[in-house]
Amino acid sequence: MPRETRILMGMPITIDIVDADSARLIGDVFAYFTAVDAQFSVFRLDSEISALNRGRLSMSDISAPMQEVLAIADRTKSETHGYFDIRRPDGSLDPSGVVKGWAIRNAADLICAAGRQDFYVDAGGDIQTGGVNAAGEPWKVGIRNPFNQREIVKAIRPEGRGVATSGSYVRGQHIYDPYRPGQRLEDIVSLTVVGGDVLEADRFATAAFAMGRAGIHFIEERPDLEGYAIDAAGVATKTRGFERYATS
């Protein structure tokens, strides 16, 4: 069955499962993303996170998934020296910087639990793959040129690892340096991270982008991550081990 794309959680989500009888499973995975959006969207008044932010729900009463996401956010804040912070200036919580990678990882786990090992899950450009594609070849992931999104500047084979890109070229300026509130991040326009899974890649890509030019050096210092940053002048900087995944 060909891959299928739907708009969910405010972004295109693509699922490709290499199996002729994958239609029902693909539907189940999309249903999972729909449920995640219903629970975690800060734009929905009926979501659990909105109930928590508006005081209709206390921390002692939140669900197990919410506890897990908030715990990951707290850990990431500590691991990134405060550059990853889901608390907004008004005191409310926006866990979207965790939820996307977390949901993609869980969707991949659902596929594996159903006995399928060859798959591709892409939500808003953050990707988890497994096995091989329909041609029996390793999956390839393209890094887009932030100045011309129709152009791929680098292609990589993630080898079952997760890939996430943070940047300002699609959604505009939506990531901020918590130590310089109100100042735009203009040095770096795109930062791609390859991690053990898409959740690891996503949460650290967000934090590293907030660090500006220092972000790629932060990724370099973590032995479990590789990165590829593009600055405002179009100059790319990569970690020493990134070329292991590069195909072009």
Walk me through the structure.
- The protein is 31% helix and 24% strand.
- The protein is α+β, with helices and mostly antiparallel strands and 248 residues long.
- The protein has a single domain (4-131, 138-244), classed as ApbE-like domains (T-fold).
- It has an eight-stranded antiparallel beta sheet with strand order 1-2-3-4-7-8-9-10. The protein has a two-stranded antiparallel sheet with strand order 5-6.
- A hairpin with a 4-residue loop joins strand 9 (226-231) and strand 10 (236-238).
- The radius of gyration is 18 Å and the shape is globular.
Give the fraction of residues assigned to helices: 25-40%
Structural class: alpha+beta
Biggest sheet, spatial arrangement of strands: 1-2-3-4-7-8-9-10
Which CATH-level-2 architecture?
A: Roll
Proportion in β-strands = 15-25%
Q: In CATH terms, what is the fold-level topology?
A: T-fold
Quaternary: single chain
SSE string, helices as H and strands as E: EEHHHHEEEEEEHHEE
By CATH, the superfamily comes out as ApbE-like domains
